[in-house]
Specification:
Blueprint: E1 10-17, E2 26-33, E3 38-42, H1 49-57, E4 64-69, E5 72-73, H2 79-84, E6 87-90, H3 102-109, H4 117-130, H5 132-136, H6 147-159, E7 165-169, H7 177-192, E8 196-200, H8 204-210, E9 213-218, E10 221-227, H9 235-244
Parallel strand pairs: 3-8, 3-9, 6-7, 7-8
Antiparallel strand pairs: 1-2, 1-4, 4-5, 9-10
Length: 249
């Protein structure tokens, strides 16, 4: 008997959202984030992948549809409230403070424990233990880190909230393959520790290597979705066909 699949932790139903009145970028998108799984959102440029994560995290209040986290309705909550519900967001552009040291960036990640010096130091200590490169560079301005190291800093900072759901946008764009592989390894590891990851990626091949489940987006809708197994053998070719076949834009 196969074990029952874990229940989704974040559920979004029929989200409609956009930036300008009357122009919807998301046109009814439903996705789930499931503990222990990496779910990838793939799709061409400008299709609304980043917009989806922004809408899920509360940067862009949905016009229609709903979002639930852990069975609670969180539609329309703001980012800091989403964080309190155990959701973190790593945006497409690294969100570090470049002129502040690595260590101060980490301390800022623990701002909710401000006033509890011991707790903050413990969290910073744990973060640098997990990401040795950050220990080595803790006194340097974060802007002097390489792209891959900045991503590690963001991951380390977001882990301080002990989140359940990670919304991660293009974590390896512009990063050399060896370091990218490391970052995918870290993401896979999050899922292995029971976290729910929703990952937006352009790198179909890499994404499919770590994805348990895939959503293919096209012009503000989910065109197709399924577990990695349902794709069969040549996943890359299949997804590329979905993405780039003409006719259904
Ligand atoms: N701040 C904004 N104001 C107005 N329109 C925006 C804004 N951000 C994105 N858009 C538009 O929303 C649409 C979807 O953009 P989005 O960034 O979600 O795409 P994406 O799938 O993440 O693309 P990419 O793969 O290039 O990152 C695009 O047409 C874009 O021009
Ligand atoms: Mg994007």
């Amino acid at each position: 008997m196969t074990p029952a699949a874990p229940a989704p932790w974040l559920v979004a139903r029929d989200l409609v959202a956009g930036y300008l009145p009357g122009i919807s970028i998301l046109r009814g998108v439903s996705v789930e984030a499931v503990p222990g799984q990496v779910r990838c959102v793939l799709g061409p440029n400008g299709t609304g992948k980043s917009t989806l994560l922004k809408a899920l995290f509360g940067f862009l209040p949905p016009w229609e549809g709903e979002v639930e986290v852990g069975g609670r309705r969180v539609t329309g909550l703001l980012p800091h409230e989403m964080r309190l519900h155990g959701v973190v967001y790593l945006p497409q552009r690294p969100s570090i403070f470049p002129y502040l040291s690595v260590e101060v960036n980490l301390r800022l990640g623990a701002w909710q424990y401000r006033g509890h010096r011991g707790r903050v130091e413990e969290l910073v200590g744990r973060a640098v233990e997990r990401f040795p490169i950050l220990a080595e560079k803790r006194r340097q301005p974060a802007g002097t880190l390489s792209g891959g190291q900045q991503r590690q800093l963001e991951l380390a900072r977001s882990l301080m909230h002990d989140p359940t759901v990670f919304l991660i946008d293009e974590p390896t764009a512009g990063i050399e393959p060896r370091v990218a592989a490391q970052i995918y390894g870290l993401i896979k590891d999050l899922a292995a520790h029971g976290k729910a990851v929703l990952l937006v990626d352009q790198n179909i091949k890499r994404a499919l290597e770590i994805a348990d489940y895939v959503y293919v987006m096209r012009t503000g809708t989910v065109l197709s979705e399924g577990s990695r197994e349902t794709f069969g053998g040549d996943t890359e070719a299949l997804v590329a066909r979905w993405l780039y076949a003409s006719g259904s834009t």
